[in-house]
Design goal:
Elements: E1 3-4, E2 7-8, H1 15-24, H2 27-39, H3 43-47, E3 58-62, E4 69-73, H4 76-86, H5 108-124, H6 133-145, H7 150-154, H8 159-167
Antiparallel strand pairs: 1-2, 3-4
Helix pairs in contact: 1-2, 2-4, 2-6, 6-8
């Protein structure tokens, strides 16, 4: 099992943990978390998402990692989170859905610093830390559990890639005898 930043990659975030972190996070981080969960997009693609990619049909992206082209069709949840993101304070010339005060996309380092501060606060409150990448894993695992096409959501070339991703986080719910 590979480990990154001291956190195991088989981490499944419970709904309670997800909501708990959003409560202590800034409005921006909470919205980015919701966006990441709803779309299962990679962090890099979220941070580089331009406003002109948001169309009447939905949100168009070309994944930076795989080159896969996707259209995220509008759902009530996606409409809500995009509206919340658009309502964030932004410079007039900001071209990105999530941007700095200068209108630029957040750098990986800058976003990691904000994320780390939230995770430190979460750990200090008794929560178990998780990576931003674990949100994508939660989204794909939950999508499969709901009978959705997790592979399409992920933009993976093969089902084996998606299954490997999900399998590490899958679990069975069991009812004890008493």
């Amino acid at each position: 099992m590979s480990v990154k930043c001291g956190l195991a990659h088989d981490r499944y975030i419970s709904d309670q943990e997800f909501e708990g972190v959003k409560i202590i996070a800034s409005e921006l981080i909470a919205i980015v978390m919701d966006f990441a969960y709803i779309t299962a997009m990679r962090k890099g693609d979220i941070l580089k998402l331009r406003l002109d990619q948001i169309t009447d049909e939905g949100i168009w992206i070309k994944q930076s990692k795989t080159g896969s082209k996707q259209l995220y069709e509008w759902t009530d949840g996606l409409i809500d989170v995009v509206n919340r993101a658009r309502a964030l304070k932004r410079p007039i010339r900001g071209l990105y859905l999530f941007c700095t005060r200068q209108g630029q996309p957040y750098s990986d380092t800058g976003f990691k610093a904000m994320w780390n501060r939230v995770q430190v606060k979460w750990a200090e409150s008794g929560g178990q830390r998780f990576t931003f990448h674990d949100i994508r894993a939660k989204a794909l695992t939950d999508a499969k559990r709901m009978g959705m096409d997790a592979q399409s959501l992920a933009g993976h070339a093969t089902s084996a890639m998606t299954e490997h991703y999900i399998k590490q986080r899958e679990f069975k719910r069991v009812v004890p005898l008493r």
